[in-house]
# Entry
Amino acid sequence: MQQRPVIGIPTQTLQSIDRIPEDLPASWVMNQRYFLACTSVGAIPWMVPLLENDPETLRGIYDHLDGIFIAGGVDVDPTSYGAERHELCGRTDLARDYVELMFARWALDDGKPVMGVCRGQQVINVAAGGTLVQDCGELFPGALKHDYFPGAGWARDYLAHDIRIAPGSRLHTAFGVEQAMVNSMHHQSVDRLGEGLVATAWATDGMVEALEGTREGQFLVGVQWHPEMLIDTHEGTRNLFVAFIEAANQFHDAKSLAYA
# Structure
């Protein structure tokens, strides 16, 4: 039986989400769809707690992982990339920022596979020294509508707009086309790209819809949409998840050989 790689998925603080009763105890949560998507292509998902005051335990968790999946969620706090908070920046989760940025930076150093979606793409960019647009509707000139949020009546798998995909990219290899339709549930976006990253997909307004790492051999991919909602119906999306899990398997095998 092929090794099933262990994929770490950091959580989110329950209290950082809107409309949560104040009397609930402090809790860590995460959308099941991310775990189900990773499991469907052969991974063992590992829910990562936000132990921001215990870096030793976090490192112990990280060292057991074959790959990192960074999910969607609340806004990345502007202090994480040295910016002042704009009034249009939404709710944030500093504990989650701390853990995800730490894991992403460790993975950048180690060459461990990383996949990020929506907020996850933004975290990858910030971890590499990039910056974000705090509200693309107001602060990105000529922006399309990107905030097709479920709370406003849009289905999570609603295909909202086109993207253009860079030939030769990992995304292009997975999708097999240079144009695709994607869903869209975000109001922040990549601004200045971080070091060692390259944009590999764009919306028609020029917004970065995917980025990849330039380090030889490392799987490092972020997408601005939510592929976990499309994995059961779109072959290219499933191919992207499969490529991530295959890279995690290869990382596991190389690590095992190094310790043999």
Q: What stands out?
A: The first strand starts at residue 6 and ends at 10. The chain has a mean pLDDT of 96. The helical segments are 32-40, 55-63, 94-110, 119-127, 136-139, 170-175, 235-259. The CA atoms of residues 81 and 126 lie 6 Å apart.
